[in-house]
Amino acid sequence: MIRTDRVVIVGAGLAALYAALVLAPRPVLMISPDPLGQGASSAWAQGGVAAAMDPADSAALHAADTLRAGAGLVDAGVARLVTAEARDHILRLTVLGTPFDRDAAGGYVLSREAAHSLARVVRVQGDQAGAQIMRALAAAIRAAPSVQVAEGWVATGLRTDGGRVAGIDLARSSGSATVTVAAPAVLIAGGGSGGLYAVTTNPPRIRGEALGMAARAGAVISDAEFVQFHPTAIASGADPAPLATEALRGEGAHLVNALGVRFMTALHPDAELAPRDIVARGVYAEARAGRHPALDCRALGPRIAADFPAVVAACARAGIDPARRPIPVAAAAHYHMGGIATDLDGRSSLPGLWACGEAASTGLHGANRLASNGLLEALVFARRAALSIGRDGPPAAPVALPDPAPAAPPDPVLVARLRQAMTAGAGVLRDAQGLTEALRGIARIEAAQPDCPRLANMTATATLICAAALARQESRGAHCRTDFPDPLPDARRSRMTLAEALALRPIPEPEPS
Question: How far is CA 506 from CA 216, 224, 333, 425, 447, in A?
């Protein structure tokens, strides 16, 4: 066991980097599976950060849109808090060097995305917001003497002592035995769970390991059933699926099927700019019917190349020219609204453990995240968690991590089976039979490699998603039960421990010989 006075931050995305900068000068050990700035969902975010920057807009209007999109489960106090702090974080990111798009007068260029009543998404080079924000934060981290980045390491488990989180187990990303680091505080900012699905827009490592690690230690998990599916992943066969940002629809792109019909106009008054759950189900239905949904961007003309370079580059890799023909699209697992339950300061139910970013569940997103509120939530709660942990702390030398013995990483065949089971049973449309079969399959996968903590973290998160979805006998936001199609009048946010989820998991039948 290695002992340190450094705060341990699990993850290296926007929430992790921002928290580390706020904690300065308190010493931090950041756990980064990949080279700093790579492999995080934050770097792949295209749309931007939602914030009321226009004089015609307000934090109150932003909060109202958040509440409306969240299908009745948003914590109104959290929505007011987050939207009120949004402007300060945009200004802070600007000072840190994020090159937000500006007009001739110096104002921020704003895009409108689904379920927003006004244009309020602050962007960078059209669809480069995540990459450029991460570039600015990574540069600041490299210049911060208080931050040690352990690249090529993953967190595999939490150590508790008397009910308090007292440290963390680490392993090499490539697979190794574990190394235990005892620390005064642990902040989980390790991303979401989209990679647990066969079709996802998330980086390959984002498979619910951070959430599962906390759940296995006993942390309460909230809203696990609410997984957001993005309606316009580019259906090119790539894994992960490239994203065609929602801002394209805000600029006038339309969803059409193989017959050339704009199918969203019949499903919602806002058509392509309806809440994401509605658009995702519309795209999914067209795909299931064999009508090949696509995003028609031809009205944008040649400016699509200048305004949306990431989308154009992804299309080029698939042999598509979006200025000449519609982009084939599919609904893909994109963002997990659920996560480690936290209070307003990012504290979890376990003393000594904080969480922020997509791994956390703060009450902001409810049943259906408002577009581009994800990066905003990460910024707000990264700062609040860091201030809660405290900037004061003793000096601490860098942690000397040893070179542990090799050990098997998660079996890729089992991971592929897990992803297929989640897509089949807990995807865009769900029912009791499919969820029960998914739970049974997860148990079989877990039993096939019982000595792999990283796989156990994945299966823990998958179990929580399916169990919470099975328990919620209604349809609401991103959670759509075909056997319970109507919303309940008195629905509340869910709270569940892993032990409670496992009680709903059926005993698996033996593997066929």
Answer: 19, 19, 25, 14, 13
Going by pLDDT thresholds of 50, 70 and 90, the confidence category of residue 27 is very high
| Dihedrals phi, psi of 275, to nearest 5 degrees | -55, 150
pLDDT of residue 509: 67
Across residues 179-192, what is the average pLDDT? 97
Q: State the pLDDT at residue 373.
A: 96
SS (H, E, C) 165-189: EEEEEEEECCCCCCEEEECCCEEEC
Torsion of CA 220, 368, 235, 286, to 10 degrees: 130
Q: What percent of the chain has pLDDT over 90?
A: 89
Ramachandran region, residue 64 (left: φ > 0; alpha: ψ -120 to 50; beta: rest): alpha
CA distance 343 to 497: 16
pLDDT (tens digit per residue) in 106-132? 999 999 888 899 999 999 987 888 899
SS3 94: helix
Please give the Cα distance from 26 to 270 (Å, whole number): 48
Count CA atoms closer than 13 A to 180's CA, side-chain side. Answer: 8
Instruction: Assess contact for 49 and 227: CB atoms under 8 A.
Output: no
Q: Give CA–CA dist 20/25, Å, rounded.
A: 9
What's the pLDDT score for residue 242?
Answer: 94
Selecting among 207, 249, 276, 419, the annotated active-site residue is 276
**What does the alpha-carbon distance between residue 169 and residue 156 come to, in Å, rounded to a whole number?**
5
- pLDDT band at 90, cuts 50/70/90? very high
Describe the strand order of the beta sheet including 254-256 as a list of residue ranges.
227-234, 327-336, 294-296, 254-256
Measure the CA–CA gap between 334 and 387, rounded to whole angstroms.
Answer: 29
Handedness of CA 336, 341, 343, 348 (dihedral sign): negative
**DSSP per-residue codes, 247-278:** HHHHTT-EEE-TT---GGGGT-TTGGGS-HHH
Tell me if residue 135 is catalytic: no
The pLDDT of 377-397, averaged and rounded, is 96
Class of residue 500 by CB neighbours under 10 A (exposed 0-12, middle 13-18, buried 19+): middle
Residue with tokens 């707000």: 380
What pLDDT does 225 receive?
98
> Residues 42, 378: contact at Cβ < 8 Å?
yes
Looking at the chain, the whole-number percentage of residues with pLDDT higher than 70 is: 99
**The pLDDT of residue 513:** 56
Going by C-alpha positions, the residue among 152, 188, 149 that lies closest to residue 168 is 188
Task: State the pLDDT at residue 423.
Answer: 97
pLDDT tens string 406-424 = 999 999 999 999 999 999 9
CA 232, 235, 240 angle in degrees (round to 5)?
90
- What's the residue count for the chain? 513
